[in-house]
């Protein structure tokens, strides 16, 4: 199906696709304009292997306008599982899970009719997104299983690695009452948002077995259904919905926003439920009819096609409204077109309080694709056309600070290549001067980070450059480099982002792509978090986050101009967030010293005290006053405040 044929298919603008139960009836609607017949098959269970399995009836849908097939059945069918059989003029029949299914049975093989009122945790109606001012935003990325799977996490065994692992409020290491873990730990760290790696239903973990495997989840199967392996009961579809909402509510009660990592750039299967419903429509193709592979999975979604765009917008809105999600991170965002991303932003803005919902993504793709109809990819070159409230991961910042992500031995500014200071200077102002050929409209568009789930953890990257083979040893040089790395991106304008555990030297023992496990490599090691040397590193992060919250000008969120650079020798960098160097009470001065030796730096006029000396950090000033000049510690970020 080419672009012209796709655009000739009827567009359905309604908001009622899927299975919609009411008090006395349930309405099923499916968009399948090329079909010649559709039936819905009802089942007692989500799989044939369960007790009581059996078919509850087969019902023929009738054709309505705009390519929709529909049927109204008596009764509220909540808890009934279903599939569609879609028939085509050439004699083919495709059995499909409803693309708009709200829940599913084990392994997502059958959709489930869901009455959302019956899948609400206690107190859900009172749940609300926390009010977090833009300057105070910071993101901590974690996988649901990684978060609480550690046997020493203090989480009850049946909740470890599950949605419910986020809901236990007072966990400590081995239950010792002294060393906080999981949600108890997060409440004191100082981040504002938790970004969850994919929590929708994905294909590569067997939900029917406790040892069904591990995966990061970038293999989408049912976009509007929570992942069953994270539920305490994957067989009853309402459980995963209730427990996913309970997780969100628990994070909200702790004052934390929840960001959902979404993968609308591709389907995992080339014969996905979407593609089987309207063959040839949903995925991009080359002129020879083979699917494009910009995602690395060989089945890119054609977001520029009208009903694909509608599906993506509908899905994002569904998660925002049904699960009270506070933000969305788009995997391989450059595979989405600009108009689709802007449509999502506009749709979220239309919700009550929706303008506070974050949007950002990876402004790249994994290979070539074939956008049609003049569509423009949502990459860094398209920042002029994207909403200024759609952000992007800034790989330029990542690589100049600690070295190129694709070359393990390549050094950056903090670990042996201080000449990268030229780029670090541009990072401070969120690259708004166009130094690398892209032009953010606002500082807040730049997601400033050095580590995420992909590639090496920060600690492992620093160890690789230093050629340190013992990842467990709290090497003093690596600790200093880690502190300096954090000190830089936490004093840059933009949105700071970190991988969970970065703040205590998280290691995967040199595994740079642990996407399919084992869990023992990926899980957060809560004992490591409380080893004294690593706990001191965490305290530094906690202090830098507190400084950022206490001094809003650091973020650039209010449209502050680029920081004023100070004239310093060598590879030292210094700046004041204000646009001049005239000290006024409460003004900051920030210094980066990448050298392995102590260095002297001149100070702006005035009297200064430390908020950070490169080892300790606190929003409250400490130590003596300084005037004229200051000796900077080796490999350090120093933050001063004017008295």
Structure write-up:
The longest helix is centred in the last third of the chain and has 19 residues, at 532-550. This protein has 14 helices and 28 strands. The chain has 3 domains: 3-119, Immunoglobulins (Immunoglobulin-like); 132-554, TIM Barrel; 564-642, Immunoglobulin-like (Sandwich). The protein is an alpha/beta fold and 643 residues long. The strands form 6 sheets. It has an 8-stranded parallel β-barrel. Strands 3, 4, 7, 8, 9 and 10 form a 6-stranded antiparallel sheet that branches. Strands 21-22-23-28-25-26 form a 6-stranded antiparallel sheet. The N and C termini lie far apart (68 Å).
> Average pLDDT across residues?
97
Main pleated sheet? 8 strands, parallel, barrel
Helix content: 10-25%
Residue stretches low in confidence (pLDDT < 50, at least 5 long) are none
> How many domains in all?
3
Total of DSSP H or I helical runs spanning 4+ residues:
14
Instruction: Please compute the radius of gyration using only Cα atoms.
Output: 26 Å
CATH homologous group name of the largest domain: Glycosidases
* Estimated share of beta-strand residues: 15-25%
Total count of strands: 28
Overall body shape? globular
Give the CATH class of the largest domain. Answer: Alpha Beta
Furnish the topology, listing elements before pairings.
Layout: H1 3-8, E1 18-21, E2 25-31, E3 37-43, E4 55-60, E5 62-63, E6 68-74, E7 81-87, E8 93-96, E9 103-104, E10 111-112, E11 139-142, H2 144-148, H3 182-189, E12 193-196, E13 200-202, E14 220-226, H4 237-253, E15 257-262, H5 273-277, H6 306-322, E16 327-330, H7 338-349, E17 358-361, E18 391-393, H8 395-402, H9 421-428, E19 446-448, H10 458-466, H11 476-489, E20 495-499, H12 519-522, H13 526-529, H14 532-550, E21 564-565, E22 573-576, E23 588-593, E24 599-602, E25 608-612, E26 617-626, E27 629-632, E28 636-642
Helix pairs in contact: 6-7, 8-9, 11-14
């Amino acid at each position: 199906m080419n672009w012209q044929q796709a655009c000739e298919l009827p567009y359905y603008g309604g908001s009622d696709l899927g299975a919609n139960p009411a008090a006395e009836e349930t309405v099923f609607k499916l968009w399948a304009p090329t079909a010649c017949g559709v039936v819905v098959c009802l089942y007692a269970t989500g799989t044939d292997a369960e007790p009581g399995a059996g078919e509850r009836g087969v019902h023929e849908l009738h054709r309505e306008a705009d390519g929709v097939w529909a049927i109204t059945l008596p009764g509220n069918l909540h808890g009934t599982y279903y599939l569609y059989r879609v028939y085509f003029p050439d004699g083919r029949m495709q059995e499909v899970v409803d693309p708009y299914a709200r829940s599913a049975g084990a392994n997502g093989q059958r959709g489930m009719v869901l009455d959302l009122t019956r899948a609400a945790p206690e107190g859900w109606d009172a749940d609300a997104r926390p009010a977090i001012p833009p300057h105070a935003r910071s993101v901590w990325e974690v996988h649901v299983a990684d978060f609480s799977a550690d046997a020493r996490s203090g989480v009850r065994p049946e909740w470890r690695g599950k949605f419910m692992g986020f809901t236990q409020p007072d966990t400590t290491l081995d239950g010792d009452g002294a060393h906080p873990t999981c949600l108890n730990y997060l409440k004191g760290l100082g981040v504002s948002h938790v970004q969850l790696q994919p929590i929708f239903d994905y294909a590569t973990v067997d939900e029917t077995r406790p040892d069904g495997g591990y995966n990061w989840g970038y293999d989408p199967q049912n976009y509007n259904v929570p992942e069953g392996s994270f539920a305490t009961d994957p067989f009853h579809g309402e459980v995963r919905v209730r427990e996913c909402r309970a997780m969100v509510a628990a994070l909200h009660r702790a004052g934390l926003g929840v960001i959902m990592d979404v993968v609308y750039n591709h389907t995992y299967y080339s014969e996905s439920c979407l593609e089987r419903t309207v063959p040839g429509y949903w995925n991009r193709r080359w002129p020879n009819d083979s699917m494009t592979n910009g995602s690395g999975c060989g089945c890119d979604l054609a977001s520029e096609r009208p009903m694909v765009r509608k599906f993506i917008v509908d899905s994002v809105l569904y998660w925002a409204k049904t699960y009270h999600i506070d933000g969305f991170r788009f995997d391989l965002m450059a595979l989405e077109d600009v108009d689709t991303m802007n449509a999502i932003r506009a749709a979220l803005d239309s919700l009550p309080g929706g303008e506070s919902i974050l949007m950002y993504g990876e402004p790249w793709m994994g290979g070539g694709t074939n956008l049609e109809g003049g569509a423009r990819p949502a990459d860094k070159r398209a920042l002029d056309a994207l909403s200024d409230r759609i952000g992007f991961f800034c790989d330029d910042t990542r690589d100049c600070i600690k070295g190129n992500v694709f070359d393990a031995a390549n050094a950056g500014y903090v670990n042996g290549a201080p000449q990268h200071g030229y780029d670090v200077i541009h990072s401070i102002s969120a690259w708004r001067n166009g130094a690398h050929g892209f032009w953010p409209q606002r500082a807040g568009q730049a997601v400033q980070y050095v580590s995420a789930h992909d590639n090496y953890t920060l600690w492992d990257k620093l160890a690789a450059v230093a050629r340190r083979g013992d990842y467990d040893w709290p090497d003093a040089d690596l600790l200093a480099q880690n502190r300096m790395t954090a000190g830089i991106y936490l004093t840059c304008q933009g949105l700071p982002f970190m991988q969970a555990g970065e703040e205590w030297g998280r290691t995967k023992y040199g595994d740079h792509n642990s996407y399919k496990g084992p869990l023992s490599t990926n899980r957060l090691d809560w004992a490591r978090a409380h080893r004294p040397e690593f706990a001191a590193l965490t305290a530094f992060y906690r202090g830098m986050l507190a400084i950022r919250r206490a001094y809003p000008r650091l973020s650039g969120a209010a449209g502050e101009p680029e920081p004023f650079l100070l004239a310093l020798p060598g590879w030292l960098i210094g700046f004041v967030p204000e646009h001049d160097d005239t000290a006024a009470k409460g003004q900051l001065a920030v210094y980066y010293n990448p050298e392995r030796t102590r260095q002297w730096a001149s100070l702006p006029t005035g009297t200064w005290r430390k908020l950070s000396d490169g080892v300790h950090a606190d929003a409250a000033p400490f130590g003596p006053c300084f005037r004229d000049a200051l000796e900077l510690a080796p490999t350090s970020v120093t933050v001063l405040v004017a008295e």
